[in-house]
Structures are given as structure tokens and as C-alpha cells.
Amino acid sequence: RDVEALMWSLGVLGGLGAVLDVMVAQGMRQPAVLRGGVLAICECAWHAVSDKEELARLPIALRMLLEVYQREEAAGSKMRDCTKALGSVIACLAPHVAPGSVPDLDRGVEVLLARFQVEPISSPGSCVGLGKEEREDLSKSDPTSIAAEVAAEAIGRIALFASEWRQALRSCGTLEALTRWIRCGKAPRRLQKYLFWAAGAIAGLPFVTAEMQLHMNTPGVIDAGLCTIIDILDDDIDGEYSLVGVERGADADMSLLLMIVVDTMRANTGAAEVQARSGHCVSLLAPLASQHVLQEAAPVAIVALISAARRFPRRGDVVRGTCCALRTLCSLARCSSTAGLEHGSAVRESIVTALQNEGAAECMDEIIGSFSTGLTNADLLEDATAVIALVQGVEVVLGKLEEEPKSSALRAAGLKALFEVGRADIGIFVGGAAATAARTCAKVQAEESDDPTSRLHEMAALLSGLLAGCVDSR
Length: 474
Description:
With 474 residues, this protein is mainly alpha-helical. 75% of the residues lie in helices and 0% in strands.
């Protein structure tokens, strides 16, 4: 462990060149140096992207890793670290090297793809009678699945960073290999997410749509598909797993996918994680669906969303997904009717009727009561308050905010919800609502005057400014 830590430190301080020098000089005689060097390369490879000298050393690192990989494989060693280092180097080199131009790079990709020639050991049948932690330990102990995870991640990054390699991966059977593993019924849930993510990076949403249709009653596969939809469509995600720029498909594909997501909610009512991510996906897909499909799918989605929130009232992720999706659907109903879109009135009527029949506003009240405390619930409270404003009117929300005690998280979240809803459609402040809202802003600011720089004061000032413009324009 000490030697491995020293090699990692050497990589951080001296870069890839220093690590390779030590590996060449000592690694073949000292396995600990070799293992430490492999771990250090994982870190150094990503830093090499912005350094020309380090980038020039990556082919040397690749050649060395291929030798180490061959040796480790022959010895029957666990391949996770070596596969990860190999994948990191290849993913960094791929944008600069075309397929077929560097034999070592082609060979490295073949090594990664070879991880999917053997199916994982664990299976649903082997987990019967085991608790959740025991099942997770079993999946973590399977070296085949662990190595496949890092290989799938590397393949996805190669496809994501280099369009030429994306086409090459499609043409050499990569999707077929990933599909076999998805469908084999033995891949652990964590691995399923990597498999879907890699396939999504190569083939985009059409692949996800096709696979989800085949696994409607398999929560682990569905959960992985939903995660990939979010990675592709959510523009607010700015992380290393965001699938920006991959194929999304045609408008009709979005409508179909929305219906599939709603059907998965109905087919997996007991799977909390499926319900939570489905809500997120509905909020992303509904604005992209056709008015005709929205008229049919939205009421069914509303029933499923509210049922999920009531079935899992203490699951923050489920409730958050429900609130986010309902806010989107409420906003779409208002936009459809006010913009004069074809089927717009029918869409609005179908959504409003479903919201009333299912008691959406009452459900939001229950959620606010359960999650009104806690610094991490601001987005959830904002979405819930926005739904109430869109369903029952802004006066109902204003009354709730005035009744809330000082420093309540709901006050700031509610003011922000009213600002965002009003900014999207100022017409929601009809009649005397604008004047009432202005008085509420002044009241809560006066009651919490001890910190004029707080978020509540910021939101109250924004809403007051919006309302002033509304009054002036009238």
C-alpha cells in the first residue's frame, strides 16, 4: 500500500513521465511498483489532455499497459485497475487518433471489448434469500462484472469524445455485445447502468427506447434506462456522465418514449427508484412530446405520479420527481391553451381534469407539510408551491406564505416559485393578485428584516420588480 501511495504521489507531483520512468526501471521486478503505476496512470491520463508533453507520453503508457494487461490476464489477476487505466488512456487518445491509424490503440479497444465476451457470474437466482446489503456485496465481489463496469465506462467515453470512434464502435459489434449483457439477466444493477450509459453514448435515445420496451417489468434494467434518458436530456446536468450531443431521435421518438416511461411507472409501482426517475423523465420528455400524445399520456402520468408520492411519502427522491413532473405538466397545460396550439384546449382540459380528480393540490400540501424543514428541500418546495399556484391560483400560495413562521424554508421557495411562474406567464397574476403579492412581499421582508441579504429578501425583491413591471404595463 505504501508503494502504491508513493507512485500515486509521484504522478501528482511529477506527471506521467515520472511514473513511466519508475515503472520501466523497477516495475517488472517489483509488482507493487507496477500496481502503483497503473493506479497513478488513471489519474495522470486525464491531466494529460491539457498538456501537450504529457499527451505525447500517452502512447508509451498505452503500450506498457497492454503488456501489463497481458501479464495480469495470464496470471488470472483481478483486472479492474488495469482495465480502468487502459480505458482512461484510450479515451484521452481517441479524439486525437483516427481508428486504424495506431495499432496499439486499436488493440486497446479490442481488449476493452473482450471484457464482454464472458457473462457475469452473479444472477438473480443466486441472490434468492439474501438481503439488500448481501446482494450488493455479491455483485461487488464478482471480478468479471467489476472489470466490465470500467470497460463500459471507457467505451462510452471514447464514443462521447470522438465521433469517428463512435461510428467505428457501432460497426464492430459493440452495441450487440452490450445488448447481450443487458439481456442476459445476470448483470448487477450498477453494471446495468454502465452498460446503458455506454450504449447511449454510441447510439443515443433510440437504443434506450428499444431496450426499455423489451424490459418493462424488470426494474433493474428500467432504472438503468431511465438514468440514461436523464443523462441525455437534462441540460442542467453538468457532470462527467452527461451525454451531451448524442442522438436524440425524431419528435415522434420523444412521444413514444414518454408513453413508455409512463407505462413503466404503472408496471413497477413497488420500485421506488423507478418511480423517482420516471418523474424526472416525464418532466424532460413532456415538453418534447406532440400535443396529441400529451393529451393522452398526461392524465395517465398524473395518476401514476400522485400515486407514487402517496405510496412513498417519505422518499424524497420519489416526491421530488412527482413535484417536478407535475409542475412541468401544469405549465404545459397553461402554455398550450394560451398559445393557441392545435389540440391546446384539449390538452389543458385533460390535464386540469386529471389534476382535480387526483387531488394534486392536496397532495402538494401533504408534501409541503412533510418536507417544509431541511436545507436540501428548496427545489422540492418550489416545485410543489408552483403546482398549487398553477392549479388553485397565486392567492392560495400567498396565504400560505403569510401564515408560515419566520425563517421558514417555504417562504423563500414559494416566492421563487411565484417569480418563475409569473416570469413564464405574467397573466397568472390576474385581477388583484399582483397587488396582493406585492403586499405579501413587503410583509415577509419586514418580518425578516434582520438579514436583508438573505435568499428570502432576494426572491421578494425579484418578485416585487416583476409585479411592478406588470402594474406599469397595465
